[in-house]
Amino acid sequence: MKRLLAAVLVAWSTNGFAQEYPREEIDVNQLIDEWYGIQELDLNYSDLYENLVQLLARPLNLNTATGEQLRFIKILSPEQIKNLLTYRAENKDFVSVYELQSVPLFDIETLHRLAPFVYVPDPATMLDASFLARIKNQSDSYLLLRYGRSLQNAREYNTQTDSSARFKGSPENVYMRFRCTVPGEFSVGFTAEKDAGEALRWDPAARYYGFDYFSFHAHLQNKGRIKNLVVGDYQSQFGQGLMLGGIFGMGKGGETITTVRRTNIGLLPYTSVYEAGFMRGAATTVALTGVLSVTGFYSTTKRDAAVSSRDTTSASAEDAETIFISSFQTTGLHRTEKELAARHQVSDKSWGGVLQYKAGAVDAGLMFNRVDFGASVMPKVTPYNPFAFTGSRNQNVGGYLNYSFQNMTFFSEYARSINGGAAYAVGTLWSLSGKLDLSLLYRTFAPDFYAFYSNAFAEGSTTQNEAGLYWGWKYKVNRRWTFAGYMDLFRFPWPRFRAYAPTEGHEGLLRIVYQPSRTVMIFAEAREEVKSRNETSASSNLYHILEGTKHLYRVNLEYGINQTLHLKTRAQLSTLDFRGKQTQGFVLLQDVTVKTGPLEWTGRYALFDTDDYDNRQYTYEKDVWLACSMPAYYGRGVRQVLLLEYKMSKAISFWLRYGQTRYVGREEIQSSGGTIAGSIQNDMKVQMRISF
Predict the structure, then answer these.
(1) Of 54, 225, 281, 663, which has fewest CB within 10 angstroms of its CB?
(2) H or E element, residue 31
(3) Segment 205-247, tens digit of pLDDT
């Protein structure tokens, strides 16, 4: 009774925030600013980030959440997680989220940041409730329907006949998602999508079920010795992701401590529309004893790949050997003849297991993974890929060890390709005090280490051909001021893409955050990156390796966080010094969000000007629920966005999003979505959610 009364008093003292945050209140924009690395690679960041956003949309039960699950949300320091688990063990279940203020090192700011991600179930709904009753009363079930398109048809659609069009489908993007889940018990759902330019067709033999992409999963948790069981599409993350890493890894960004260590979270259902990197089949984790568990998984799916040669004179096994894969395709787009020809061209059979020991402060495991392709991989020989994978089979073995001692956490993983090289990563997180945290990570990836489901902390886009030392720190002066930074020294022992010789470089960041109140936050950061790449001269056909230095500066002001009126102003500038010349790029934007009863609208006005593609500016745009938009502002122009959300009732919500980009000095707009005549591009998106 005393703990319940204390929790009520805490809730009353937090300015009326006595109710749990709804899931859509998670501030994705703030998470991206803090967690993710600077976006520079040509990746589909929207799909990658959407995967993580969907996982974060499921709150954790404070009374059952494990240390790894708490680490996954990247808000709490190792010392705070340790204190939370100790408090829970000593006092049993939490009676309210606001009881967290009784945990050492938890202040009101931490409470408000954590609240959208956790919940405490009502004991009355759990007591003697049957499984079917819990599904009825506690499940989160919804159907999501989404439609979007560019309002100007690209040239690739505008041909005289459909058969001659470069894009074989319509310009609409169509998305459908259903999910029913009881957190900590079960989840079942499916996701379907048709990208712009893809055709809607029904052909089960070609794996077309109306939509071009279809994903399904059924997930069961904590049923006796079965701790985890997934059937359908899933992802796995063990150790530091050298062998098995889900597609929600984070790079180097404003959060300099918690993002360094990968979370040993195990098996998770896959619900994203990113069409590469997931497994399809079945996986389970079974508890053998109180401290020992085993995970087994099997996956068989089809990968998109460019086929360099194929003999179709017969269907014999000998003819199958004439199929050679020159490269894998990961865009997930199937619009043109070339893209359709690469669709599902090679089988990918993956299986393996993890033996895990967890007792007290020790978390250790042994891993094995084997991948068999339905054809031999023979990439085109280039100066930068002498160690590219060849063959039809890859096998990896490895192990990881995590250990916590007082206010220090040690983590590590070692992995080896049986017919290749090794990779390892070792690091530590250290809370020197309640104000100062440090992180340290050393990694080495051999050029002939191959892991097709890896996602480790790295400078490059693959866990290969890299060595580096990262040091990060964060100092919280008081409730208002926080300073953070990192330095990463890295080298590439062998040639790589756009650098045909061994190179090295460094990257560093300094971030200052000032938050005078819960509703106002200001941050400024400066980042420097030095890397080398190829360069040619007019008088010679030889490549030269030249060093380039890039700086990025960001200043951000937010006012009215989680209030009726929310304002965000940002200025972002980058410079690149290369070949004795400096190029620049900047974006200046203003966001306004207004909440009035069931209606919420957000508007953006952004000015951008970049000298070249190397100075393109990435910044998150607020999108419809469970979607993530991270466009690259490139060229010179104005970007305007308007997002409306209307909650008709508890069961039905609508979203409408309209965006316009107006370029200066362009007669046509070229992008991966096609070529548009003129200098203006308009896009729109409509979404409806029906909750059950």
Answers:
(1) 225
(2) helix 28-35
(3) 777 888 999 999 999 998 889 999 999 999 999 999 999 987 6
**Measured between alpha carbons, how far is 51 from 48 in angstroms, rounded to an integer?**
6
Compute the distance between CA of residue 216 and CA of residue 179 in angstroms, rounded to an integer: 10
Among 369, 368, 372, smallest CA distance to 393 is for 372
Phi and psi at residue 247, to the nearest 5°: -90, 50
Which residue in this structure is represented by tokens 């179709």? 312
Find the radius of gyration of the CA atoms of the chain. Answer: 25
Determine the residue type at 371. V
Per DSSP, the three-state class of 455 is coil
Q: Give the C-alpha separation, 163 to 158, whole Å.
A: 11
- Rounded to whole angstroms, the Cα distance separating 314 from 486 reads 58
Any idea what the Cα angle at residue 647 is, between residues 643 and 652, rounded to 5°? Answer: 115
pLDDT tens per residue across span 58-78: 788 888 888 888 888 888 888
Supply the pTM of this predicted model.
0.86
Report yes or no: 228 and 221 within 8 Å, Cβ to Cβ. yes
Two tokens, residue 116? 């959208």
DSSP codes of every residue in 332-367 = ----SHHHHHHTT-EEEEEEEEEEEEEETTEEEEEE
327, 332, 356: which is closest to 343 by C-alpha? Answer: 332
The Cα–Cα gap between 629 and 47 comes to: 8
> What are the structure tokens assigned to 118, written together?
């956790």
How far from chain centre, in Å, is Cα 167? 29
- In this structure, which amino acid lies at residue 102? S
- Euclidean distance between CA atoms 238 and 235, whole angstroms: 10
Q: Please report where in the chains the tokens 């899931």 appear, as a residue.
A: 23
pLDDT bracket for residue 6 (50, 70, 90): very low
Tell me which residue of 411, 496, 492, 397 sits closest to 451, measured CA to CA: 397
Tell me whether residue 423 is exposed, middle or buried, using C-beta atoms within 10 angstroms of its C-beta: 0 to 12, 13 to 18, 19 or more: buried
Of the candidates 647, 570, 637, 632, the one whose C-alpha atom is nearest the C-alpha of residue 601 is 647
Phi, psi of 511 (to 5 degrees): -130, 135
CA distance 641 to 622: 9
What is d(CA 135, CA 232) in angstroms, rounded to the nearest whole number? 21
Please tell me the distance from the alpha carbon of residue 356 to that of residue 399, in angstroms, as a whole number: 9
How far apart CA 273 and CA 342 sit, in angstroms, is: 18
CA 219/CA 282 separation, integer angstroms: 10
Per-residue pLDDT at 42 exceeds 60 = no
CA distances from 456 to 42, 222, 262, 462, 642 (A): 18, 28, 7, 8, 36
- Which of 54, 290, 60, 287 minimizes the C-alpha distance to 184? 60
Q: How many helices, marked H, and strands, marked E, lie in the chain?
A: 10, 35
**Integer Cα distance of 59 and 70 in angstroms:** 11
Q: Among residues 92, 82, 89, 74, which one has the least CA distance to residue 31? A: 74
Q: What is the largest CA-CA distance in the chain?
A: 83
